[in-house]
Write a sequence for this structure.
């Protein structure tokens, strides 16, 4: 388990004077990223005006967060949602506690998505929460709840903005919005002012999660400038790689170290292999949509989501799992159920996820492995068993290390039966109680694991 108090960690790291814009340093400063690396598991929240239609426009029920573009909705029609957004059942503390009880350590919410609507009371635009019937500052309430329950907070912010008059390019189907007079420099100034608002109004912002950087109007030079601007405002801030132009595709990994950003952002996928020497986070939906879609019942099972969390941790990454609340401000019941079931598993097995590194065994036919350094003399390797062997024996590669102890996290009972073969170590699991979804066996060994060739 993480043995730090998040409030103390956040306020320590948010004010460390580190300049990661200096490419002579490693890409990521260890001190600034430390809490994020230990966390491994976070909640993504996509919520805004686009939640009101619940995925449906003109009889098509399959729209998502990009509904204004996929539905080719005019600004005049889309602005009508501003008058309707009134999530009276929203309770920030409920949201934070559901995330915390699921074993999540940080939350990232859409402060502003591509549609340009802001979930906070911005001095730079009237297209924000203050212009809705709800009026309450959602981000302030969420910020306060995160502070109260020691949850780290991050804001998603879209570089792309389909509402702002100076953002370019226009959508080809927007016949009544001429581009004449629009100036991207003016838009960039607006964006910087809003980001400064976010970083000064809400002191506990730990992560800025950018998106929408792929259009030609945003350049590598723009990304570099914005990264350095934000780093100067809050040196301990963690910023994803979508601030810059360098990621290859939805795989989310930047092409090389010349591009700015502290971590890669694979979307709806998990890298096949461990990504050495870089920080990364897979973001993923529970069903097929980022926002609430009333017609989408294609929910991933709790078992599938737990296996994804383990797989990501076993490869050295973080898992940012998404929930799309309803327009009323409620998490869908299916999301609530899955968060609870993940949390039940994490209460028993969380130590095999938090503060771990990629495991020493990357090719296990029955599961995955993570590891945690205890001190200079001992490491714990965690074996996450997805598929229980019929013969009751787990085989792992030969190690040069001396094994000191082994036990199941489910009941802490020692496993004393080991056997060696020419190709590996056999762990006899006859007395081990199987856990729902995945059983974790901890192996304590001397030193750092060294797999024999």
């Amino acid at each position: 388990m993480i043995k730090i108090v998040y409030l103390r960690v956040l306020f320590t790291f948010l004010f460390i004077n580190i300049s990661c814009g200096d490419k002579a340093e490693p890409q990521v400063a260890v001190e600034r990223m430390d809490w994020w690396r230990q966390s491994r598991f976070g909640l993504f929240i996509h919520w805004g005006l686009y939640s009101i239609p619940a995925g449906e426009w003109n009889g098509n029920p399959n729209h998502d967060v990009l509904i204004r573009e996929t539905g080719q909705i005019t600004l005049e029609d889309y602005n009508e949602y501003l008058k309707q957004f009134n999530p009276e059942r929203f309770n920030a503390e409920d949201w934070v506690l559901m995330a915390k009880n699921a074993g999540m350590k940080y939350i990232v919410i859409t402060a502003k998505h591509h549609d340009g609507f802001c979930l906070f009371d911005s001095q730079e635009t009237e297209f924000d929460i203050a212009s809705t019937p709800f009026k309450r500052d959602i981000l302030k309430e969420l910020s306060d709840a995160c502070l109260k329950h020691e949850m780290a907070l991050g804001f998603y912010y879209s570089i792309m903005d389909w509402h702002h008059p100076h953002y370019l390019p226009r959508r080809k189907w927007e016949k009544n919005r001429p581009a004449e007079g629009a100036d991207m420099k003016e838009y960039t100034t607006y964006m910087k002012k809003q980001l400064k608002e976010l970083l000064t109004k809400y002191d506990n912002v730990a992560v800025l999660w950018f998106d929408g950087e792929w259009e030609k109007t945003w350049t590598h030079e723009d990304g570099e400038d914005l990264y350095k601007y934000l780093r100067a405002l809050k040196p301990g801030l963690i910023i994803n790689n979508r601030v810059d132009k360098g990621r290859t595709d939805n795989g989310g990994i930047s092409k090389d170290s010349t591009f700015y950003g502290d971590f890669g952002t694979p979307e709806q996928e998990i890298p096949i292999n461990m990504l050495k020497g870089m920080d990364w986070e897979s973001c993923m939906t529970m069903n097929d949509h980022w926002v609430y879609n009333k017609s989408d019942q294609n929910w991933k099972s709790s078992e599938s989501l737990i296996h994804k969390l383990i797989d990501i941790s076993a490869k050295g990454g973080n898992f940012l799992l998404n929930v799309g609340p309803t327009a009323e401000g409620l998490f869908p019941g299916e999301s609530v159920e899955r968060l609870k079931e993940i949390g039940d598993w994490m209460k028993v097995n969380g130590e095999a996820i938090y503060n771990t590194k990629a495991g020493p065994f990357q090719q296990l036919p029955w599961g995955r492995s993570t590891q945690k350094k205890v001190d200079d003399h001992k490491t714990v390797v965690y074996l996450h068993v997805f598929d229980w062997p019929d013969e009751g024996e787990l085989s792992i590669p030969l190690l040069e290390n001396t094994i000191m102890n082994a036990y199941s996290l489910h009941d802490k009972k020692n496993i004393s039966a080991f056997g060696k073969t020419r190709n590996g170590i056999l762990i006899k699991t006859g007395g081990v109680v199987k856990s729902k979804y995945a059983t974790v066996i901890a192996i304590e060994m001397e030193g750092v694991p060294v797999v024999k060739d």
